[in-house]
Amino acid sequence: MGIKNPFIDGEVLSFTSPPFSPCDSLCAPPLLRAFFWLVSLLLASLVWFISVQISNKDSAAQQKGLLIFGVVLSVLLQETFRFAYYKLLKKANEGLLTLSQEETMPISIRQLAYVSGLGFGFMSGAFSVVNILADSVGPGTIGIHGDSQHYFLSSAFMTMAIILLHMFWGVIFFDGCERQRWWAVAAVVVSHLVVSCLTFQNPQYVGSLVPTYVILLAMAAWAFHTAGGSLRNLKLCLTCKDTDFLLANHRPR
Amino acid sequence: CPVGVGCSSVEKKIYVHLNYTLPCVRLLNATHQIGCQSHLSGNVGVLHVLESEENLDWVLRSGLNPPYLVILDSPLFTRSIMMKLKNGSSRVAGVAVVAPSTNPPDGVSPHTNCPNENTGVYTEKYDPALAHCNVTVWNPLGSGLSYEEFDFPIFSLKDDNDTKVIRQCYMDHNRAVNGSAPQHPLCAMQLLSHMSAVTDTATCMRRSDLSAFSLSLDTVCDPLADFNVWASTRPLNNTAKGHKEGESVVVAAARLDSRSFFFDVAPGAESSVSGFVALLAAAHALRSVTQEAPPPRNILYAFFQGETFDYIGSSRMVYDMEKKHFVVDLDNIHSLLEIGQVCLLSSSPLPPSSFQRFLRARPIPGVVIQDHQSSFTNRFYESMYDNAGYLDISYPPDLTPEQQLQFVTDTATALTEVATVVARSLYAQAGGDQARLSSINADPQMVTQMLYGFLVRSNNSWFQQLVPSNLMSFLADRPTNLYVGVLNQHSELTMLVQHLLANLTGTTVNITQENCNYQREDEQDKANKHMFFYVWVQGAAPPNATEREGFCTRSTVRLTSALSPAFDLQEYTSKDYSTWTESRWKSISGRIFLVAGHELEMLTLGVGLGVLITSLLLTYAMSAKADILFSSGREPVNATY
């Protein structure tokens, strides 16, 4: 027969083992994670909505307090859902492992952490910025009431910081859960709270952006270290001695 | 938005919406389109407050941030400035005129010099020497701005808080300091008044007719139309149309409508209100004497709508008379007496008047009563300043609205004398008994109440008593708008004149509300609905009660169509009849905001693209070198999984 059977012909790689395509493991987590983030946001906004309705609308102090409460609650809910997601992924992975014939997982928990953090961050960023983008489409810019012109730029940078932070927090958080290092988990929650509360500094954009970026750099370094990076590796990569190193010290990951 | 937390909506931080916007809209006729137009999404321009005519140079030539949106104070809203702006329209995004709260001292009239010059009686064929105002220019102050075409929006703003915000924004951001260019961000305004119709009436009616066959097309224009109000001293059988044997009628005519440059603003105090209020008062004065000693000829009071726009109402009535669609025809008319502008107190050709349309059809003897010998004395003809202030209708301070309604002003007294003269002339012309002439007097109380209702506030206690309860919503806390409006749009003015005339010339009959609404005196009555018009009006609440006591008024008041015959005949390029239409539009709004400099916009875009490309490259690099970068982790091989 002249027709090549893709399941027999070994040249078509994507149909050979492993039986699960990479997309199973790599595409679902961010989407699922994003969904989890949405659910946490929904819960938080429900609580906030109810509490605003029953509160005293005229008291400015109470409204501000309510806002802070809302933010704190939202952060805590997000972290709770991140933990729930971690548990879910673990269970799913165990299930996959028993089903497949492999000895190791097709995707490491570290990659899962990165990917899920990214999904989380993406959804969070989208929600932060889509509103602002929609209003920026018209002919005008901010400022007629005296606000700073740089609102759009600052929002963009803040959103970028948040997305990256979520990614790093995801890595650190999952690693902390893996190794039972609860102080790492606590550090993630605390820094998330700090960054969210820093936004109350707006419109002092310097006051909110600079500390956020400082925390971002710190988290980046920590996540890099947690994921297996080190200064030595970085130097090796940058000075292009990596290929020699690989040949010398190749280990399966 | 919740108090205290602040409006977090970004849109509210950017835009300040203008609350009170009066646009100029597009009108079309057989050959032209007039008025203003904006782009589909509105015209955006950098604000510039014009200081003088020389300052126009900044807008038209030397300014660095075109297009500009020019803010004018009303003394600068002149023909020469507007024509220069029209010619430089690539650099002009729009104009906003700040209307003052008091009338300007010099006269301002945006109408043409020779109103209705092509549809009157003086044409090339009849008395060409008098055509086109060759002998008398009726409106010498007319600049003709209302009849020009502009391709940018022109709005009118009140001199209130919104305008202060606009001026402050201009002062803060747009002023050139010491000759250097103003820095971004600049204050800008967007005006939206996109008109759907283009070119002329024939085009827009053709497109509107097509909309009946296609779901995606809309009607784009509507003919200007309304209803004429008429009544007679002796009842006429309304169902028998055409010539009435033995009926000789003296027509007493007045014009109802007016216009100005801006849409739906038409106070028309001297242009129209003076005339029809005088006629209403005359009709009231004649009520008792025409019952006790009826003159041999019938008197037909006719109030025409749409006269401003090439005699829509009177041309329609003449057409209906010619086609035998009206209760009488042209042969029944003995003579015509028309009341023109009569409030300002100073053998020539006829001024623009409804009488001219009757003359086109039949030589009928007639006269037009007016307060001017040759040109109009009205300095604000068909302009937004032709209001109560211009007629010097002033009330002593500290009067409540109710007291103002009752107060007899000097203007009212003067107008009452005119009404008395008119009433007596009509009675004499109708062949009435000369001995009774001195007993005919118009009532100054009635006149002042009418002037108050039309020029100051139509929602007053007297008008409220005269209208049926379902029409109460038409009454407003501001002067009546005399603009004719489009077909199927009920106008406050026509409704008020109809019910006023019913009350002033009719009688109260003691019948039930149900019979009144069915146009009959009792269950068996089938004849009276042809002769009379019955309307159940609200009446007043008696003292110590809250419910109004309504009653039924019987009169001979009727409405007839005031739609130009050109639309019935579908002759949209007619030269004989009015072909005016008004364009439709989706929305009209204005807002102010700041616009960022080009540099900041490019910087933002550049930064964004840079970050995007950098992050892509970084991600690719890290992913390619992932083996190396993440290799030194202490990876537990066999899991805590």
From TrEMBL, chain A:
Origin: domain of life: Eukaryota
InterPro entries: Aph-1
UniProt keyword terms in alphabetical order: Membrane, Notch signaling pathway, Transmembrane, Transmembrane helix
One matching Pfam family: Aph-1
Subunit structure comment from the entry: Component of the gamma-secretase complex.
Source species: Gasterosteus aculeatus aculeatus
Subcellular localization(s) per the UniProt record: Membrane
Manganese as UniProt keyword: no
Annotated GO biological process: Notch signaling pathway; protein processing
Family recorded in the similarity comment: Belongs to the APH-1 family.
Role description: Potential subunit of the gamma-secretase complex, an endoprotease complex that catalyzes the intramembrane cleavage of integral proteins such as Notch receptors.
Annotated Gene Ontology cellular component terms: gamma-secretase complex
Transmembrane among keywords: yes
Protein's recorded name: Gamma-secretase subunit APH-1
UniProt topology in membrane: Multi-pass membrane protein
Spans traversing the lipid bilayer: 34-54, 66-85, 112-134, 154-174, 181-201, 213-231
Automatic annotation (TrEMBL), chain B:
Transmembrane intervals: 602-622
Residue ranges occupied by any Nicastrin small lobe domain in the UniProt entry: 23-197
One annotated GO biological process: Notch receptor processing
Highest taxon, organism lineage: Eukaryota
Gene3D superfamilies: Zn peptidases
Record's subcellular location: Membrane
Keywords for the protein's UniProt record, in alphabetical order: Glycoprotein, Membrane, Notch signaling pathway, Signal, Transmembrane, Transmembrane helix
Listed name of the protein: Nicastrin
Species assigned in the record: Gasterosteus aculeatus aculeatus (three-spined stickleback)
